[in-house]
């Protein structure tokens, strides 16, 4: 298993990140990097700190210490905000808005957004573009969340469990889309609990446990000793507290 050697030009570099909520450290010296035009998958048990990592990278959480470089800038800076997309796990705040309106609004925040009709068509949103967000199915909400992350043509996009709860058709369609994004030069950082998804998509995997990276490598490197990726996951993580 290789250690990941960060390149100075990596779109994402996280070093020794510490995040505390109250006195409890949730990220505890976490370091990782995401290479350009690649899909990087972050795996870890429930509560390991994956969402907190993404929220830190997108300026929504303030770390106690450590550093994050996004395309050479700090999280939340105008340079980073204009070039980075994020698909959160859930977006309760959007409850009454209609997908079409939401995406047109989000597009207006960017200098060179994707055409909203084409994006809605690609993600299968067109037929429910006028349905209030709260009335959409979980999978439909996921599609809208993904569209929101992509509408600004990000160079780097964070996707927090992008296929959670999707049926197999929608999941495969999302995989295809993520492959197209990579081929188009987008750097993708995603979290997932699905080992087959990480195997199918990830150019590099980071396994996170209790707020730090315990192992990293390509799928081939991690599974090179005849272990499945799930075996490697189980060997390098603890069960979530309470499970
Ligand atoms: N705003 C917050 N205030 C207090 N504790 C928080 C906050 N956000 C997250 N936590 C705690 O931080 C820990 C890590 O949460 P996080 O959501 O980052 O985990 P995760 O790896 O994304 O988990 P999952 O796989 O279940 O989504 C959890 O114990 C969670 O309760």
UniProtKB/TrEMBL annotation:
Keyword Translocase on entry: no
Record membrane topology: Peripheral membrane protein
A Pfam family of this chain: ABC_tran
InterPro entries: AAA+_ATPase (IPR003593), ABC_transporter-like_ATP-bd (IPR003439), ABC_transporter-like_CS (IPR017871), ABC_transporter_ATP-binding (IPR050763), P-loop_NTPase (IPR027417)
Domain ABC transporter intervals: 12-235
CDD domains: ABC_DR_subfamily_A (cd03230)
Subcellular location: Cell membrane
Main location: membrane
Key word Ribonucleoprotein present: no
Keywords recorded for this protein, A-Z: Antibiotic resistance, ATP-binding, Nucleotide-binding, Transport
Sequence intervals crossing the membrane: none
Gene Ontology molecular function, alphabetical: ATP binding
Name this polypeptide is given: ABC-2 type transport system ATP-binding protein
Organism the protein comes from: Microlunatus panaciterrae
Source organism phylogeny: Bacteria, Bacillati, Actinomycetota, Actinomycetes, Propionibacteriales
């Amino acid at each position: 298993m290789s250690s990941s050697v960060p390149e100075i030009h990596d779109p994402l570099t996280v070093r020794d990140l510490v995040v505390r909520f109250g006195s409890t450290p949730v990220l505890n010296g976490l370091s990782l990097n995401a290479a350009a035009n690649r899909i990087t998958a972050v795996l870890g048990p429930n509560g390991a700190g994956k969402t907190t990592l993404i929220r830190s990278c997108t300026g929504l959480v303030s770390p106690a210490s450590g550093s994050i470089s996004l395309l050479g800038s700090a999280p939340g800076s105008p340079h980073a905000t204009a070039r980075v997309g994020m698909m959160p796990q859930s977006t309760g705040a959007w409850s009454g808005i209609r997908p079409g309106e939401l995406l047109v609004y989000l597009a207006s925040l960017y200098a060179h957004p994707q055409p909203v009709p084409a994006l809605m068509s690609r993600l299968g949103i067109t037929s429910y573009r006028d349905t209030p967000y709260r009335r959409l199915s979980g999978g439909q909400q996921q599609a809208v969340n993904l569209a929101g992350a992509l509408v600004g043509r990000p160079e780097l996009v964070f996707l927090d469990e992008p296929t959670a709860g999707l049926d197999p058709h929608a999941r495969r369609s999302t995989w295809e889309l993520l492959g197209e994004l990579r081929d188009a030069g987008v750097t993708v950082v995603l979290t997932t609990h699905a080992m087959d998804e990480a195997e199918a998509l990830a150019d590099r995997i980071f396994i996170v446990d209790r707020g730090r990276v315990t192992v990293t490598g390509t799928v081939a490197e991690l599974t090179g000793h005849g272990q499945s990726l799930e075996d490697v996951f189980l060997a390098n993580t603890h069960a979530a507290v309470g499970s």
